[in-house]
Amino acid sequence: MKKTILSAALCFLTVASFACTNLIVGKKASVDGSVMCTYNCDGFGFAQPLGFYAAGRHAPGEMISVRGFGPAGGGRFIAQADYTYGVVGLMNENQVTIVETTWDGREELRNPEGYLDYFTLMDLALQRSTSAREAIAIIDGLVQEYGYSSTGENFVVADKDEAWIMEIIGKGPGRKGAVWVALRVPDDCICAYANSSRIRQFPQAKKVDKKLGFYVVEGECMYSADVISLARELGYYDGPDADFSFREAYGPLDFSAIRYCEARVWSFFRHHYDTAEMDSYLPFINGHTEVIDHLPLWIKPDKPLSVRDLMNDMRDHYEGTALDMTADVSAGPWASPYRNQPINFKSSDGTDMFRERPIGCQQSGMTMVCQMRNWLPDAVGGVTYFNMDDATMVAYVPVYCGIDRIPDPFRRENNNIREFSTESAFWMNNFVANMIYPRYSAMIGDLRDAQIELEDFYAEDQKTVEAEAPKLTPSEMTQYLTRKTLDYTDMMMKRWDKLAKLLIVKHNDQIMQPSENGVISQGRRTSPPYSPVFIDAVKAETGDRYVKPAE
Prior knowledge:
The chain is α+β, with helices and mostly antiparallel strands. It folds into two domains: about 5-255, no CATH class; about 375-520, no CATH class. The chain is about 30% helix and about 20% strand. It contains 13 helices and 26 strands. The strands form seven sheets. It has a seven-stranded antiparallel β-sheet with strand order 19-15-2-3-22-23-24. About 50% of the residues are buried.
């Protein structure tokens, strides 16, 4: 028996992340027929490199050790597949993509004896699948055979033709499998997940598919054979099957799940739908579930979305909404959407308080926008726009699924969380971001200029890549796309180095020098003004102390 080691998540993740955001776009809801999904992987204190796994054929009887980050992290052996597909990040060479958010749910359903945590499941399914539907069946088969060790989880499982959402949770200690429901997102709709269970009622079939071992409503829904019966057995549900709600049984919402999680979904929908109608859900966002107790699972957007739309959606801080994080005194003098205190805290008189939790946040380890296209060869049709750290503070770099190596700035060995390096995308992005966070409104414009400059160039250059790559042999295409990806990453690193140097010179000592095209220019230095909301709050707090007498 040959033994090989499989590190969890393609060497993509070494710590669990329990605060992520996924946005999903069906192919008829996108401007060009792409299927798209996104992922902000959030959690303080970790760097999130880009993973890579080469395709390969494996010997009969070969076993692999799965080394996850959860209770089953000690390493256990499972059977290797005969053939595994190449994977870059969270997209394989067939344009199958899997991203996730964790919603925990009922803690008593965690099974510490399960071999597979959620990221190992994603890893294995990506290596073994040619379509989203096949990936879902593989996930089910793996947890039935080896057990599931994580808590409640949502997977977005997408390919070049369709996107599915899959909610899964364990059965508790001593029960090997998991219960789950997967729904296909309608092609003309958008959907989102942000760390809460969202599937309520779902279409049901009369009989279990004997070959697959779970229920299938063709093209619409798949679900585990015991998803309702287990809820009955454990006392989570006692009504008719037709009325069964997965969310209410396995992941019921509280105020935290609504305000910190569902509010992110609400804000995304609000960008792409009638704002007045979406604002009618504010009672729910404010915790008044007696008025309304859920958001739509998906919506048909008012117009098709582009990759650039999704990039901007991943940078959202509720701007322009009732939850706008830049619009009150807690934003400070520089109208910052960032907050340093814990999400839950107390005032001096002991009052329980909270802060907002937006899509864009400083604790992201990486961010990605994944685009899958059925009219192009897989190698170029699948592209992950990737970078490390906060989506607001980075430029998304195109990374094709058909490359044969990872750019150095995104490699694990160049992204040590304990040691700064100018060769690290994580540290160069954080270097810039942490200059901007304290003086957001004064400095963010300089970053926006660099961000738009790069993303405009990448978008324009894609036209050439998409025209030239299909003309090449498979080997030539691999080398061409790899070189493009390496060059794009190098361009980003050089531009961020230039930006960092501009920021320290232009904004030195909190006085702003004029600049043009990223270069300091001649002109008068100015003091960037405080936010009017902050000035008014200071006046209200201090009375006449800073009021200048009439002359």
